[in-house]
Amino acid sequence: MGGAEATQVPGVTFKMPPAQTTVRKYRRDTSEVSCCLKYMIFGFNVMFWLLGLCILAVGVWAWSEKDTFNNLGRLANIALDPAFVLICVGTLTFVIGFTGCVGALRENTCLLAAYALFLAIILLLEMTAVVMGFIFKDWIKLQATGGFQAFIIHYREDPDQQNLIDWIQEDWLQCCGIEGPKDWDRNNYFNCSSRDVGSREACGVPFSCCRRKPNEIIKNKQCGYDVRKPGYFADGWTNLSPSTQAGGDHTIFERGCLRAGEEWIEANVMSVAVVSVALALIQNYDVAKIINEKGCIQAVEEWMEVNLIIISAIALITSFLQILGICFAQNLRADIFAQKAKWH
User: Fold this and answer.
1) CA 240 – CA 261 distance, rounded (Å)
2) Of 274, 283, 176, 294, whose CA–CA distance to 233 is shortest?
3) How would you label 59-74 residue by residue, b for 16+ Cβ within 10 Å and e otherwise?
4) Which residue has the higher pLDDT, 255 or 176?
5) Is there a contact between 181 and 205 (Cβ–Cβ < 8 Å)?
6) 41 or 270: whose pLDDT is higher?
7) Is the pTM of this model over 0.85?
8) Residue 110: alpha-carbon gap to chain centroid
9) Quick one: pLDDT band at residue 302, thresholds 50, 70, 90?
10) Residue whose C-alpha is closest to residue 299's, from 287, 309, 310, 307
11) Can you tell me the distance from the alpha carbon of 61 to that of 98, in angstroms, rounded to the nearest whole number?
12) How far apart are the C-alpha atoms of 287 and 337, rounded to whole Å?
């Protein structure tokens, strides 16, 4: 079989060509899709997806603890409910993470397009919010004031709002009320007229308005009681009563009161000086020393001014990462289309 074979036919001789061994060369096709880019988008969005799921779970748990699902009519202003905000943020984060994660893993161009579109919309909204923040600064301040007023009014009605405003006043801004402690008069429990119905918190403020004392281990939950009552000082009510002096055996006092006063002062000059200094210290160590008198709206403005560079840096980094995500998603889509073109 290796050489030429002759086929015998009467009168005709045919020669068969030598058999040739067929050699097939297999060439491994290279993929147009970048594995590094694909799994980088996948890995980042897996974390984003799980983060959104956790936030969503916390929001749903908070609503279930308050039995909100059975009493949706109780929500006076749903936009100011922290649990509702967590549910919205968690849902949005979950959806964006899902489209990026599954779209990259399955090389699905539709999901990747949706992922890039979501990021572009969020980036556009952020840029719009920044511009509007500078143009309509007074309007935003007015809306923030209205929202904080709602927090104060419903302070005892919603535990989530209560915890949020306590965190703002005590830990974040060290403030009290909107413009000062007097704003807590809007709350029924802290209104000074509530003393008539037996409210112990009347003319007071929440404990989160109090300044923490050095080395304080146990937080005093009653430190804000009565601090807005007229004449209240840090050491309690100050009542000074003059001492009673016994007179002589005379029927009437012969000494004039003006002269008696001068002599008393001369005889007790050191005591008068000490009492005067003590009174001055007590009066200076007033409510401002135990509670934060600065309003939270003013505190927010000051905090933003002090941390403007940090806020700008975070905003720029966030925008850069969003733009990078859009570019990566679009690049991966282009690779997938190029790979599909080779198949056809």
Assistant:
1) 17
2) 283
3) bbebbeebebeeeeee
4) 176
5) yes
6) 41
7) no
8) 33
9) confident
10) 307
11) 22
12) 69
Q: Which residues pair with 210 in a beta bridge?
A: 291
The answer for 19, left when phi > 0, alpha when psi is -120 to 50, beta otherwise, is: beta
Tokens read off for 13: 């001789």
Which amino acid type is present at position 269?
V
Phi-psi region at 263: left, alpha or beta (left = phi > 0; alpha = psi -120 to 50) = alpha
Angle at 336 between CA 334 and CA 339, to 5 degrees: 110
How many residues in total does the chain contain?
344
> What percent of the chain stands above pLDDT 90?
14
Look up residue 51 and give its two tokens. Answer: 């983060």
> 6-9 and 12-15: which strand pairing?
antiparallel
- As a whole number of angstroms, the distance between CA 184 and CA 223 comes to 15
Whole-number Cα distances in Å, 105 to 102, 113, 185, 336 = 5, 14, 57, 12
**Beta bridge partners of residue 13, listed in sequence order:** 8
Question: What is the sign of the dihedral through the CA atoms of 92, 94, 97 and 102?
Answer: negative
Maximum Cα–Cα distance across the chain? 179
Q: Are 298 and 95 in contact (CB under 8 A)?
A: no
Gap between the Cα atoms of 341 and 338, Å rounded: 5
Structure tokens at 163: 């915890």
Helices (H), the chain: 35-65, 82-105, 109-135, 137-153, 159-166, 257-267, 269-284, 296-306, 308-343
User: For residue 216, which amino acid is it?
Assistant: E
Model confidence over 60-78: pLDDT tens digits? 988 888 776 666 666 656 7
Tell me how far CA of residue 34 lies from CA of 106, 114, 208, 338, in angstroms: 13, 20, 54, 11
